[in-house]
Amino acid sequence: MAYDMYQEVILQHYRAPRNFGPLEGATYAGEEANPLCGDRITFRLKVDPGTGRVEAAKFEGDGCAISVASASMLSEKIAGKTLDELRGIGQDEVLKQLGIPLSPVRVKCALTGFAALGKALQASASHPPA
């Protein structure tokens, strides 16, 4: 029963992803592709230079239901956090939010958005917000 509930949540995030679309004035961006499934996700962050907090986070791209749903769920956790807090989010936390067992191929799908966010965070480490 709980498995069905998680599947429905995944489908809801896939059909109507949260924080999906372009982000004007983004401070950082990172893109990741998963050639096994054709997923491609770009995360954009707008960071307040005074506080270092994320004012807005959005993602774009396309992919399978797992990939888009995972990026959508991840995007909901980002706003208001500092870049250091984002760096503290681990792969296990991202996978756990889906609530279903995943095959190794699907794990890569679920982590595509996470990897894109990681690339945006790498950019932030070498170019602090002005």
Write the layout of secondary structure elements.
Blueprint: H1 2-15, E1 28-34, E2 39-47, E3 54-62, H2 65-76, H3 83-87, H4 91-98, H5 104-110, H6 112-126
Antiparallel strand pairs: 1-2, 2-3
Helix pairs in contact: 1-2, 2-4, 2-5
Tertiary shape: globular
The order of strands across the largest sheet is 1-2-3
Characterize the quaternary organization of these chains: single chain
Number of helices: 6
How much of the residues is beta strand, in percent?
15-25%
The major β-sheet equals: 3 strands, antiparallel
CATH architecture annotation = Alpha-Beta Complex
Helix and strand element order: HEEEHHHHH
In helices, the fraction of residues equals 40-55%
Low-confidence runs of at least 5 consecutive residues: none
Structural class: alpha+beta
Distance between the termini: 49 Å
Which class in CATH terms?
Alpha Beta
DSSP, total strands: 3
- CATH topology-level name: Sufe protein. Chain: A
**Whole-number mean pLDDT:** 92
The total domain count is 1
Radius of gyration, Cα only, in angstroms?
14 Å
